[in-house]
Amino acid sequence: MATDSWVNETLYSDWGQRFLVKRELARVQSPFQDIMVFESTSHGRVMLLDGVVQITEADEFVYQEMLTHVPLLAHGDAKRVLIIGAGDGGVLRRVLEHRNVEKAVMVEIDGEVIRLAKEFLPGVAGDAWNDPRAEVIVGDGIDYVRKAAPASFDVVIVDSTDPIGVGEVLFTDEFYENAARLLSDHGLIVNQCGVPAMQAEELRDTSLRRKQFFADVWAFVAAVPTYVGGFMTLGWSAKDPATRHVTVEQVRERAEHAGIIGKTRYWTPEIQVGAFHLPPYISEHLPKA
Ligand code: SAM
Predict the structure, then answer these.
(1) Is residue 288 part of a domain?
(2) Among 32, 66, 114, 120, which is most buried by a count of CB atoms within 10 Å?
């Protein structure tokens, strides 16, 4: 239906962004959340979950590229990747761009998010849904990690909603303990930790929890225009502290080998290395080494 109305994001009760809606495409109440997809005049198609922006066609590449390429290229030989959440398929697509990846398992709790993303945001995942290396499971991420075999993945990528509602279990000690167990010796996990200018306690809390199970806990940043408030932090937890300390040259060489160079619009080897150098207003929320 055509509209000329505005949609207000409801993430914060006292501040936020709004979009002029060209056309509403879908509005569904799933068993887990309220899902809305609309065509904006400014950012292409937009998906909201419970009133919070998840993805816009205009800037999804920033978040998806950083959440995927940074951990895979720091690891250097990731063959088995577990993705939790990420129902739009954008992370799955980026993971499968790495030609050395042999298997990508994606566990998304809400089948309606996947269905609507396939119908209204088909460019986000591209052909990833049909890649023979992809296994897409509709289920709760916490159940999956509880049952996963020890050392069965090299990298875990958590692309979740914020720690309220169905996403809350993905920020618990139980989740991180199981993630450490299912990761191989040089394994690592990345997870979205919110925008620290507005959600500092989210970064502080999840970092302290992860520190109990991983030798190296830190964060890296990406500036996603529609995750308002400045830098977004992506949490980093690795079993081996050396994994984080790669050089620009090492990252470039690995990216060439993986087939990533020339395919990105935000990620570069220099940005990967620079993203771990944090302004004090962010690093003050991270556990000391
Ligand atoms: N890539 C976007 C972003 O940058 O924010 C989208 C985030 S993605 C759509 C977040 C997904 O996490 C949602 O589809 C939500 O259903 C899923 N999710 C939340 N809790 C979950 C859980 N316990 N297990 C698996 N998936 C979960």
Answers:
(1) no
(2) 66
Give catalytic residue positions. 159
Q: Which two tokens stand for residue 267?
A: 């990620």
The total of structural domains in the chain comes to: 2
Q: What's residue 277's pLDDT?
A: 98
* Residue range 93-142, pLDDT digits in tens: 999 999 999 999 999 999 999 999 999 999 999 999 999 999 999 999 99
Q: How far is the CA of 141 from the centre of ligand 1 (A)?
A: 10
Which CATH number is 201's domain given?
3.40.50.150
Ligand 1 site residues (CB inside 6 A) read 32, 49, 54-55, 63, 84-88, 90, 107-110, 113, 140-142, 159-161, 166-167, 169-170
Q: Both 25 and 130 in a single domain?
A: no
- Partner residues linked to 220 by β-bridges: 234
The rounded distance, in Å, linking the Cα atoms of 26 and 37 is 5
Coil/strand/helix, residue 146: helix
State the ipTM, two decimals: 0.91
State the DSSP code for 195.
-
Q: How far apart are CA 180 and CA 215, in angstroms?
A: 10
CA 247 / ligand 1 centre spacing (Å): 31
Its domain, for residue 118, covers 60-283
Q: 38 and 78 share a domain?
A: no
140 known ligand binder: yes
Ligand 1, atom 15: closest residue by C-alpha? 85
What residue owns the CA closest to ligand 1's atom 6? 54
